[in-house]
Amino acid sequence: MKYPEYVAKIISRFEAKGESAFIVGGSLRDMLLGIEPHDYDVATSALPQKTLELFSDKRVIETGIKHGTVTVIWDGAPVEITTFRVDGGYTDSRHPDSVSFTSDITADLSRRDFTVNAMAYNQSVGLVDAFGGREDIKNGLIRAVGEPSRRFGEDALRIMRAFRFAAQLGFEIEEKTLVGARECAEGLVNIARERIASELLRLITSPYPKRSLELMRDNGILPYLFGDYELSERVIGGIENMTRSEAARLGFVLSEAQPETAKKIISSLRLSNKLATGALAVARGAGFKVSNAEDARRLIANTGVYAEDAARASEILGVSPRGAVEITARQKNTPCSVRDLQINGKDLAALGFSGKSIGETLNALLERVIITPEINQKEALLDIAKERL
Ligand code: ATP
Ligand code: MG
Fold this sequence. Notes:
Shape: elongated
Radius of gyration: 27 Å
CATH superfamily of the largest domain: Beta Polymerase, domain 2
Strand order of the largest sheet: 3-4-5-2-1-8-9
Low-confidence stretches: none
Strand content: 5-15%
Structural class: alpha+beta
Distance between the termini: 77 Å
Number of helices: 21
Largest sheet: 7 strands, mixed
Number of strands: 11
CATH topology of the largest domain: Beta Polymerase, domain 2
Bound molecules: adenosine-5'-triphosphate, magnesium ion
Helix content: 40-55%
């Protein structure tokens, strides 16, 4: 197994000073899977202060120095370097009460969440795999390190991570790990909603969310995400056919909820406004039946740039016939919003409209244009407006 030259140089620098250093975590997992890691995490026996000194010729960011993490920028590539550590007790099921540093790589690996994430590797020692991570990668299994219910009890976010990794990698969750997740699910109420939302979004936008959502449903995890709203077989079964963006997939997941329920769930997840708006548009539009161009324009008028995602959702759910996405795509450049009309509020004011009736008239004109796009011409629209005066 080969890691890049700059990572080798970082590891050698530690070794030259009598310290050990390894690649760990997701980067090693990805290497074993034959996937190019997006970045490299290094763990070392050196204390943070020593790491700072060793790399004083480089740009170093004190990312989480209290927890032993510094980021070294080597020729533009950031490498997170963390001192081997063990976590103290957990009293609130999310933050360890203390962390202490250790010189034992195996102790460091034992605090990690899953066997596939709890290996270490460097070119001089080779693979350190005390928990059977390589075997679990081979068999496609997410398995907690140690006693699952204790590990999930310490930090319930690990429950979400288990299902997220399973969805990303297409892995199964080992039976005892699944039982532990079920037993500790209530701990999810202690986890910040933002962190839950972030794991949920990574899960649903991954290549294999279907199986994870099924397992989460069958093991009582989903109520901690969606309250009383239950995901149907159609939604779970269809999600992998849905566009792979956050707004599209989250909107699809919520497409069978009552509008009020969908809004409540979205606001409970503390998402950005943009994502919240997009997901709600897709969820709303998924209920539109698109069988012809006029339907498509109506959908675009209602959901804007999310119309094609919404059409796809409605196609997957069987609300719209096949072809709805294409029909919608073809209407993209036709007038579908008040802004596209060949007249505006000023024109109406000149005719004698005022106040609320301006907006109402523009909407009425848009309705006519959605039915017959050809009438979107100034004279024709002014004539229709005059009739309404
Ligand atoms: P990715 O970056 O693709 O999400 P990753 O495995 O690198 O995957 P990170 O969140 O970056 O995940 O964490 C790096 C490593 O730290 C993990 O591989 C795992 O060993 C450990 N880790 C992270 N979060 C936890 C946690 N909540 N409990 C225990 N160990 C954790
Ligand atoms: Mg990572």
